[in-house]
Amino acid sequence: MEAYKRWVRRNKDYVHSLDSLANGMTWLLPERFSDSEIGPEAVSSLFGIISSINDHIIETTPTQTTGHSETLSFPYPLCITLLKDLETLIEVAAQQFYGDDKKWNFIAATEAIKALVRLAMFRNTGYKMLLHGGETVNVKRASDAPHSQQRQGSLANSGQYHGPGNLRNYYGQTQWNLEGRALSALSRFGENARMLSEPTWVRRVQHQQAIMEPPTMMDEKPSLSTLLSEKGVPGGLFVMGEVMFIIRPLIYVLLIRKYGTRSWFPWFTSLAVDLIGNGILSYLAISRSSRKDPFFHLSNHESSELKRRKVLWALYLMRDPFFTKYTRVRLEGTQKMLEPVPIVGLFAEKLIELIIGAQTRYTYMSGS
Q1: What is the pLDDT of residue 28?
Q2: What is the pLDDT of residue 192?
């Protein structure tokens, strides 16, 4: 096993490319969305598990960097990723052996386990926002500190060289310098432009690079009572908003299990939980920008996470009964319109076929 770890770490770029190619090719497997075939999903899950393990090996490469503020005693991100790799296989196998109705028991059990792992991670990381559903550790860095703290740190350590990792902070602090303002603006623009759908391995490589930056300070992981006593009502709202994000998929599945996929009640309830939870976190993010000393300072990655969660609302267009009633009609109409066009019609037909096939799997459209 150690020899394999060394090989993966020495050839991480090759491993990432190979994993991405293998995962992409699984979408072209025959009968990928067949009701009776679990083979393609088993192959896809296997490649996903191998990719996740390889990424975890690369992320845990020993370094000489000291002072890393975030060390987890349990590999929560790997556990969550493996559950996500297995959930589609569990869904397909349950559908084949137990039928469409009873498969929701297994899906609900999977979502319950994921929710418990995420809640444990949320607690053990000191009630920090989960990034990418907990697949990325929320590491506090010097560049994420509030501007006032950055400036104080700069004045306290003037004349000292902090390495290339603090170059971006240096330019951000020298607001009176034209070059500094320009580079700071470019840095913020680049971070915002990358916040949407990046491949999983890209996010993990960025995380591996991010932890190389010096931390702002050694983080003490507060208890819930400490957080509530220090932050008051905003602290309680933050915890409530994050918990709503974590348990929303479980609520949705339990309601589908009871009312069925044709009912609008699970769809609207899930949407309401998403809107309320994200609304609370967005309110805290907006209110902190209007305060000199905010209760919560959201890092760049946490702000991007809020935007990513809002983008996931687009999946409601792909969930029943909205999909059957509206989205599928539009897709089939587009397919008929493009069908006479050479090549384009062929690709459109294949693409819409994949979309409709993926929609039949809860786990592809769950956003969890």
Answers
A1: 60
A2: 47
CA distance 215 to 218: 7
On the 0-12 / 13-18 / 19+ scale of CB atoms within 10 A, 113 is middle
Alpha helices in 260-299 (DSSP H): 264-289
In Å, how far are 31, 45, 164, 320 from 355, measured between CA atoms?
A: 14, 19, 44, 14
Q: Given phi > 0 = left and psi -120 to 50 = alpha, else beta, which region is 232?
A: left
Range with the poorest average pLDDT among 66-75, 168-177, 262-271: 168-177
Q: 123 is written with which tokens? A: 């607690």
Q: What is the DSSP string of 80-147?
A: HHHHHHHHHHHHHHHHHHHHHHHHHHHHHHHHHHHHHHHHHHHHHTTSPPPBGGGTB-----GGGS-H
- The alpha carbon of residue 44 and the mean position of all alpha carbons in its chain are separated, in whole angstroms, by 20
DSSP-assigned letter for residue 57: H
Closest CA to 278 of 304, 244, 318: 244
Q: What is the pTM of this model?
A: 0.72
